[in-house]
Automatic annotation (TrEMBL):
Pfam family, one: F-box
Coiled-coil segments: none
Top-rank taxon: Eukaryota
Every F-box domain range: 12-48
Native species: Urochloa decumbens
Transmembrane parts of this sequence: none
Protein name: F-box domain-containing protein
Amino acid sequence: MAPPPPLMEELEEEVLLRFPPQDPALLVRAALVCKRWLRLVSGPAFRRRFRDLHRTPPMLGFLCNLVEDGSMSCFVQAAGAFRPPRAGLYQCLALDARHGRVLLQRPGSSEDALVIWDPISGEKLELSTPVPRRYAHNWTAAVLCAAGATCDHLDCHRGPFLVVVVYVGSSVYGKVFICTYSSDAGTWSEPVTKELPLDFVRFLGSVLVENALYFGFPFRKSLLKYDLESREISVIGVPHTLSKWRHVVLDGGLALATYMNPNSAFGGRLVLKKMRGGHKTWSLSLRHSSLGMPSWPHVMWLASQMV
């Protein structure tokens, strides 16, 4: 009996496009079957169609800071056999991740250098911080695509980017100052400053909503908003009834995730409050009951999954 005729290349591509994105190793194995499939899978047209079809990128893993006082970040696999090249992050601390890039701090280097890491290609770029650490009480940073709303962020990890560093001054200075690095210009901007009481900006990370970055002040229960276009700094209050909270993105807008009634016999509730009315009020958007008594990191993981 004669062997069946081979599938048309167009049909083969349609089959390969439907491989589950949660396990990228499957496409690697498919590329090893024959030269034709290797050419299909590695071509830019296939990658573009694959991204357009599946849209939301899968979670391939996450970074965990093993020692908060400064020494090691570890990549934890969450899907298949994916592991980034050059994933050894000894003496690096993860600060932020967005739009295909990871922002690391290298505490042992001069003035705590920042490292921009592309986990797909393995490329790393080191930046010196614009303000010596000795002039700041504490600080944090965020990384993002420079194209803003004009980009769909499906494949911009090789394009221009911005790094925003937020410093909280010492008690002598009593102010917040923000500097922005542009990869296009290759330089840091002049600092933007605002008089604010002291707080720790390091603990809660950053959230990007539209054209603004939000950083959390946990002790004074407020959010620092930095408008990337106007370069203006403003402060948004958080309800004082919330003991533990974190800012998140909900339906494209700013929201707060909090855990209420943790000691209840019926379990606590994960509550999401969304900002409405031009940063004037927080209103209830979602309540998930009977969560038991999870730790706070667990609550944050569940909040991110629900959002």
